């Protein structure tokens, strides 16, 4: 299967982040997030990382969508 070629190549975990990213690199994700072991996503070991922005993204996302609807429907 073609997907098997790419499986695991786009996964980000703490070790990959530490090895390849600057200390101030922000980790973003569009959500929803698939945290299954076989998924090519963010590992659960990044859940407590101080630079993980996905939870802030969800908080701000509601306000951004509300503002966009207000602009479009006005």
What distinguishing features does this structure have?
74 residues; mainly alpha
Explain what the structure shows:
The protein is mostly helical and about 70 residues long. Helices cover about 45% and strands about 0% of the residues. It has helices at about 1-5, 15-20, 55-74. It is extended.
Summarize this, please?
This protein is mainly α and 74 residues long.
How many alpha or pi helices? 3
End-to-end separation in angstroms reads: 48 Å
Sheet with most strands: none
Provide the helix percentage: 40-55%
Nearest-angstrom radius of gyration? 16 Å
Question: Overall mean pLDDT score?
Answer: 87
SSE topology:
Elements: H1 2-6, H2 14-20, H3 54-73
């Amino acid at each position: 299967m073609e997907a098997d070629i790419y499986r695991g190549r786009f996964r980000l975990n703490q070790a990959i982040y530490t090895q390849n990213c600057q200390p101030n690199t922000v980790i973003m994700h569009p959500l929803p997030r698939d945290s299954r072991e076989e998924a090519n996503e963010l590992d659960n070991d990044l859940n407590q990382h101080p630079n993980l922005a996905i939870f802030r993204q969800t908080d701000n996302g509601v306000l951004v969508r509300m503002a966009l609807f207000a602009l479009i429907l006005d």
